């Protein structure tokens, strides 16, 4: 499943889960881009060494533009090789295209237009358009979105983006948040209120996430 949406209440463990998933991507030689609009405080130096860390909307938009340019380059390569996707291309060609992961920790920090002026809203609209393109077309070209937020409602995450994110994970949540993420209230009913690090997928899998000890990473 090409893209992931994770929603959870405060201190529910979603950033820790995101890090665990991203580290697996790094170990598989993926290019990882992390957008964190809390100043990057949740991502210590090891992440800055292994990934590109973005902390402003302007830099995110610029990086997404480059990702879309790579998508077009890969589109031409796949067409020339008569391949339907990156997997087929890598099977047939000596050149190996790596996967690109765009992870956004708390997407509401950049997409919520409340209190923004005209220029800021224009920039956010541009980012929404770029993310929507990756969500709709990125799968075949090895470009994937990992999106985390406390409340991915329609005011924060537009339908065109959210509807193209097929894999949903919900942590500790009330009925409203569970409904927004999973389209049902199961997370509110199955995850204890003190269930930090416990998540439910939209396929009904209840799991406890691994803890990633960042002090041991190299």
The general outline is globular
Structural class: alpha/beta
Quaternary status:
single chain
- Spatial sequence of strands, sheet with the most strands: 3-2-4-5-1-6-7-8
Weakly predicted, low-confidence segments: none
H/I helix tally: 9
Topology pattern, helix = H, strand = E? EHEHEHHEHHEHEHHEE
- Give a quick account of the main beta sheet: strands, pairing sense, barrel closure: 8 strands, mixed
How much strand? Answer: 15-25%
Q: Ends: how far apart?
A: 28 Å
How many strands appear in the DSSP assignment?
8
Residues in helix, % = 40-55%
The whole-angstrom Rg is 17 Å
Rounded mean pLDDT is 91
Account of the protein in words:
By secondary structure, the chain is α/β, with parallel strands linked by helices. It is built from 9 helices and 8 strands. The chain has helices spanning 14-27, 45-50, 57-80, 86-92, 108-111, 118-137, 159-162, 175-182, 186-190; strands spanning 4-7, 31-36, 52-54, 100-105, 143-149, 167-170, 198-201, 206-208. It has an 8-stranded mixed sheet with strand order 3-2-4-5-1-6-7-8, sandwiched between helices. Helix 2 (45-50) links the parallel strand 2 and strand 3. Helix 3 (57-80) runs parallel beside helix 6 (118-137). The chain is globular. The two termini are 28 Å apart. 34% of the residues are buried. The model has no long low-confidence stretch (mean pLDDT 91).
Question: Could you write a compact summary of the structure shown?
Answer:
The chain has 218 residues and is α/β, with parallel strands linked by helices.
């Amino acid at each position: 499943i090409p893209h992931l949406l994770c929603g959870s209440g405060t201190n529910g463990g979603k950033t820790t889960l995101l890090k665990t998933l991203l580290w697996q991507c790094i170990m598989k030689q993926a290019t990882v881009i992390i957008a964190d609009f809390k100043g990057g405080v949740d991502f210590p130096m090891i992440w800055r060494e292994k990934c590109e860390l973005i902390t402003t909307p302007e830099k995110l938009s610029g990086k997404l533009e480059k990702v879309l340019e790579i998508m077009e380059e890969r589109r031409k390569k796949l067409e020339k090789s008569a391949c339907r996707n990156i997997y087929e291309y890598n099977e047939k060609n000596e050149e190996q295209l790596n996967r690109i992961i765009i992870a956004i920790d708390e997407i509401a920090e950049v997409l919520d237009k409340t209190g923004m002026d005209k220029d800021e809203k224009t920039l956010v609209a541009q980012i929404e358009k770029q993310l929507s393109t990756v969500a709709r077309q990125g799968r075949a070209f090895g470009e994937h979105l990992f999106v985390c937020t406390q409340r991915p409602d329609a005011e924060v995450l537009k339908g065109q983006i959210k509807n193209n994110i097929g894999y949903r994970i919900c942590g500790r949540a009330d009925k409203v948040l569970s409904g927004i993420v999973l389209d049902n209230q199961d997370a509110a009913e199955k995850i204890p209120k003190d269930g930090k690090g416990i998540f439910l997928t939209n396929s009904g899998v209840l799991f406890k996430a691994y803890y990633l000890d960042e002090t041991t990473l190299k």
